[in-house]
Amino acid sequence: xxxxxxxxxxxxxxxxxxxxxxxxxxxxxxxxxxxxxxxxxxxxxxxxxxxxxxxxxxxxxxxxxxxxxxxxxxxxxxxxxxxxxxxxxxxxxxxxxxxxxxxxxxxxxxxxxxxxxxxxxxxxxxxxxxxxxxxxxxxxxxxxxxxxxxxxxxxxxxxxxxxxxxxxxxxxxxxxxxxxxxxxxxxxxxxxxxxxxxxxxxxxxxxxxxxxxxxxxxxxxxxxxxxxxxxxxxxxxxxxxxxxxxxxxxxxxxxxxxxxxxxxxxxxxxxxxxxxxxxxxxxxxxxxxxxxxxxxxxxxxxxxxxxxxxxxxxxxxxxxxxxxxxxxxxxxxxxxxxxxxxxxxxxxx
Length: 349
Fold this sequence. Notes:
Elements: H1 3-6, H2 35-46, H3 51-54, H4 80-84, H5 87-122, H6 126-154, H7 162-173, H8 177-202, H9 206-233, H10 239-257, H11 263-268, H12 273-282, H13 284-292, H14 297-303, H15 309-318, H16 328-348
Helix pairs in contact: 2-6, 2-9, 5-6, 5-7, 5-8, 6-9, 7-8, 8-9, 8-10, 9-16, 10-15
């Protein structure tokens, strides 16, 4: 059965074409390798893995709670709508919301695949081209992993959300190579890491947890790649150029914060959409979840030098300014350690 037959609601077209116009840059100096990026490139080569063999795809999912997540992870949990549902209806909500979230992971990973291929073409440094080439393979593997999880285990998928599609369109259509880094490596993948962690750390189903753990091991390097490249580049921009990038980062963060309302799920399931959205927007659990999503983004934005008054005010208003001093390198080491623990458990099973 095709992906088209698994979508809970129709997609507009099987293809989405984004018009792009940018320069492809060749670099004739092949020894221009910065130590930090060379180290990251070596790590990227050494940590390539095969989704077919590293993950145990023989595991089954519970049809009533595929990833075996606590009900608190359902964004309408505790609402009057939730309280009115039967046990069968709640099981359907769990399956659909989980499939909806994984579908956005899948579409986002395809976006990362295309963006990183664009970086290989655009970026003017040979060391960045080398590392981005390893990331292209990473992203293809991630698309494969989430596609397989949805096709073989859920047999259900959702189209890309308008907010994610808009952000990808902004990133892909911009001709400047650093905007591709900022939009994808820092913002979209930084947020994805936090969303992946919610499943990795709380799912009782080992297949679902493992997929996210292994993807996170890669993604942590990708965010580090964006940080290293932009930290070297942004000090050379004019104040006006930095202001423009701060404006983009603020708008993107608001877009990403609002992409978890899941209107499509409530509509497909025949639930009162406005009531569900109103509850999600006002719930304390969603406020905390949205805040947590920016754990990786805020310190990275500060580190690369986009830390003017406008972005600090916006982050203070969003309640996420306190993440500025989070140690992202420590989080990366933890992501690597957790993935290795999954490997050890499978070897010892």
